[in-house]
Amino acid sequence: MRMDVLVLGGGIVGTALALSLAMKGRSVAMIERGSPGGATSFGNAGLIQSEAIMPYPFPRDPLLLVQYALNLKAEAHYHLKDVLHVAPYLWRYFRASTREGMLKTARANVPIFGVCLDEHRKLAQAAGVEAMLRPGGWMKVFRTQKAMDEIGKATLDDLGPFGVEAVMLDRRGLAEREPNLSDAAIGGIHFPTPLSLNDPEALTLAYARHFEALGGKILTGNALTLEERKDGWTVKTDSGLVSAPDCVVALGPWAPDLLRPMGYKVPMGVKRGYHVHMRPRGNARLGIPVLDTENGYMMVPMANGIRLTSGAEFAHRDSPPTPRQIDMIEPRAREMLPLEGRVEAVPWMGARPCMPDMLPVMGKAPRHKGLWFNFGHAHHGLTLAGSAGRLLSEMITGETPFTDPKPYGIERFS
After folding, report:
1. Which tens digit of pLDDT belongs to each residue from 355-383?
2. Is the CB of residue 265 less than 8 Å from the CB of residue 277?
3. Burial of 315 (0-12, 13-18, 19+ CB in 10 A)
4. What's the CA gap between 290 and 313, in Å, rounded?
5. Residues contacting residue 132 through CB under 8 Å, at least 6 positions apart
6. Contact at 8 Å (CB) between 186 and 143?
7. CA torsion sign, 120 to 121 to 124 to 126?
8. For the chain, what percentages of helix, strand and coil (3-state, to nearest 5) are there?
9. What's the pTM value of the predicted model, to 2 decimals?
10. Cβ neighbour number for residue 410 with a 10 Å cutoff
């Protein structure tokens, strides 16, 4: 089977790119081990965060670091047995988390976050599912005045220069916005512009269906069988060999498995995360996603209930799940919102692919003709899927890209 482009990986990032290319008239085969959107993309918080320009920095507060080291905080957890494995990434992450480093990342984020809502709207409209994009934004809430004064002010100070719309809310403002939130939340910040979803997997599958309707092929195969040949790239699938002159690596946390043997330095770390759905009690409801700032988890209204999403777990990507963070945040969530039992017996786990500077890797491979990269979107794979799809599709088809791709190149780690 001969195509114009191969896309390795069927998460939201790979699927949005495949659809973007198909909408430009390219013949595309997307190779995935399972169903599109069934791995890391399945379990996110369902947010398309146009405001999330500032990266998540490595903490510098000594007291906080001691608490993290003792695994006392719900927002971060680590496996002692995997310390040596995760330490190189954490050291790079720490070094990149200076004020100068954060601002450098933020400046590079401006163009890709700036178009993220419009690009998703274009794809969703083409797929006939624009109604899936829920307006209303999301809220960051605080339990103490100290946190509201310090964290809230720092948030507004950071985002203000970038023109991010944010509204400070007191207790009365919270009650008007989300009447079922308890008095545990004394105030918050409402970001009204972002969009959210009640089923992230459904959006990926809708994009995949439209991709197929445009003639795209979704094939089951193993990306590690990729070979470079005289006429381009070839990979083995259950439908036989498929080849193309251009190939995009959109494998998320599995990208290093393919690229390191090819000579590419990929200093990726993995922040594992968990979620579980809770049943609201009685007529309690939540209209938009809410972050409990001091406890590092999010409550998101989803089709299956209220999704509780955990913070970061630092462990080997393939280590057995340890959903201790879910057990820690559940009682805190019950303080915030009337909740009953869990919907699932076992929490879901996924792996966020994070680069040390919290920027994705997007663009042309420097050592191989026709090879392209689109991975490492960290906490923002859903948010940036449309932006990345536009950028890569413009580059692959020879158009002038809407923004300079240099800040996202893998060469920055050479």
Report:
1. 999 999 999 999 999 999 999 999 999 99
2. no
3. buried
4. 20
5. 124, 197, 198, 199, 202, 203, 206
6. yes
7. negative
8. 40, 25, 35
9. 0.96
10. 22
